[in-house]
Design goal:
single chain, 267 residues, alpha+beta, Aminopeptidase, 2 domains, eleven-stranded mixed beta sheet, 9 helices, 39% helix
Length: 267
Amino acid sequence: MNIVLSEAVESLEQLCTTWGRIVLDCGTGFVKDEPGLAIRWADSQFPFWNCITITDQVYGIDLLRERFTKAVDFMRGQSRPGLIWFFEDLLTPDARAELSMAVEQAGLECALSGYGMAGDILPIAQPLHPELEFVRVTTDELLLAYADINARAYAMPLENVRDGLAGSPLWKSEMHTYLGLENGVPVSAAATIENDGSLFLALVATNPDAQRKGYGEATVRKALYEGWKATGLTRSVLHATMAGAPVYERIGYRKVASMKFYGLKAQ
């Protein structure tokens, strides 16, 4: 397996294992591995916690259609919406050429595009920002503030993201979950968790009215720094939106996989 494909597979596997822990932490839904599919379904109002990933390491168009059909059948049987997290780099060239048609035939549409990213970027220096105070999330009140920042950044209803995080022991204890505060008000958020030899970076967000001030990058650096200090791990993995990728590249991450996030078309 060449290094590019190897890192794409690493990105996929990191997603599956980390999301499994997150879903189990929610206390609802289930984690299930089937041939070619990793189902991580929290039955949450927060659609990012309802996830199916195609896990075949190389696949052509016939297998892709088969996986899409099974994933869609499962999603249509659920009460809450979710997403298929799809790694394009694992397609054969012929399947890539027919991807758009397969998506259309399956009744899917692209909700979001992004990248799997990784890098041996740690350790990094203790981050400083003249306008931010960093606070670790250890209480339900701070966790709700963390949820609300993500809701605003992704233009989701507050109650949906709160449903995915409220009361979580994982985000308040095992994860290195941090808020950036401007004049005492939470404005940015980032978290890391140890996972299979890497620090997985998750749910990075900044309030829309506080963006382009370096707050997001500073808070990411804080979560990475504290995660490294606690674990000694030097490698980190994340899954980024198109807009977020340049921030992570400044920190030292590289793009290792192209991703699409597919949801069901409205009927």
